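Example 3.2
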Amino acid sequence: MSIEIANESGTTVDTDAVLAVARYALDEMGVNSLAELSILLVDVDYMSELNHRWMGGDGPTDVLAFPMDEGSVDHGPGEANGGEPALLGDIVLCPEVAARQAAVAGHSAADELHLLTVHGVLHLLGYDHAEPEEEREMFALQARLLDGWRASRVH
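Structure, written as tokens:
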């Protein structure tokens, strides 16, 4: 699994942990080991620009996921793609927004970034939370993946 990460946010982030939680989520979801993912950490101004350009939103958001063409995603051994790497897409995180949300939620900024990373991975894999049933499914899966990853770090 190839995961590239770039921290252009100006904020100190434990990128190894962000990579680890992304890798854990992809492994648990049965994503092909040849898959490629890009994670970019950005500042508030750039996230605001991306949010406006791609989502029509005002101001910064916490995470954006830009999946590649769904036809190119290889979800595991059940789908053959000739052994070529599947480019899953890009996850863009904003540590400053994550830190604000973490303070409100009562946990660390690192925990919030881990949650947002898993959230982004699930979006790249086609999960959404537009409808109540979709939201329940996605958020339950997100919680299960985070709990599993945290438990795996303890041992």
